[in-house]
Amino acid sequence: MNMRKILAVIALMVVCATRVSAQNGYSINVSSKDSLPQITKSARDFVLVQFGYASWNKETSDTAKVNTKPFAYTFNAFLCYDFPIKKSKLSFAAGLGISTTSIYMDKQVLYTSDTGVGGYDANFMKDSITGYKRYKFNTAYLQAPFELRYFSNINNRNKGFKAAIGLQVGTLLGAHTKGLRSVEGTNIKDKVSTKRYISPWNFAATARVGWGNFSIFGSYNLTNVFKDNAGPTLTPMSVGICLTGL
């Protein structure tokens, strides 16, 4: 018996069984919406992308020494894994990502010195020689965020109110200054990279509050920009917009 005959026999058996059931008063109604459970997988804010305004909290003694322009920014991107706490609206999340900050100086440049036995230090001083059009100080950290999260809508976290508090722990990837100057009408960029004076670790308290995929975030560092006794006491802080999803 070939395949066509087998299929024909099966089709005939199905038709006969249907007729018999109808004659005996039995009916089979299948509704995909009623009988099959809808399988959904709630979002867990796997991706966090943040962009915002950055600044330094300066000690009183450093206020006159360090002058920054109003424009400064931070950009962070994290991948997080969310662990729901039983069936509550709370969860714990941990992740890994990159955090960068750029601060623009106001007619100042970073001078570094190495006095040998006396140690080394870095200070921002007046740009009285080069005359840079633009001069910025940039840091980049490999950052691990840890958050305690609250979601009002546990079935769809892309909707509803959400909030989080947490701590970020980072290790320094790099730091540099970049200045733009003009020589006979030609723009020249000077870039100096160094990690010697910068804090190798970064600890920051964080908070987020928002609705759906958008929220407002804030962070305040528990560590300074420079190592102890290696530069002015400057504490980074930032506030901005956070996009979450997946």
How would you summarize what this structure contains?
The chain has about 250 residues and is mainly beta. The chain has helices at about 5-25, 30-35; strands at about 45-60, 70-85, 90-105, 110-115, 120-125, 135-150, 160-185, 185-195, 200-210, 215-220, 235-245. About 10% of the residues lie in helices and about 55% in strands.
Describe the structure.
- Residues 72-226 form the Outer membrane protein beta-barrel domain.
- InterPro entries: Beta-barrel_OMP_2.
- Keywords: Signal.
- With 246 residues, this protein is mainly beta.
- The chain has one domain.
- The protein has two helices and eleven strands; from the N terminus they run ααβββββββββββ.
- The protein has helices at 3-23, 32-35, and strands at 47-58, 68-84, 90-105, 108-114, 120-126, 134-151, 161-183, 186-193, 201-211, 214-221, 234-245.
- The strands form two sheets. It has an eight-stranded antiparallel beta barrel. Strands 4-5 form a two-stranded antiparallel sheet.
- The chain is elongated, with a radius of gyration of 30 Å.
- The protein starts with a helix and ends with a strand.
- Mean pLDDT is 85; it is low at 20-33.
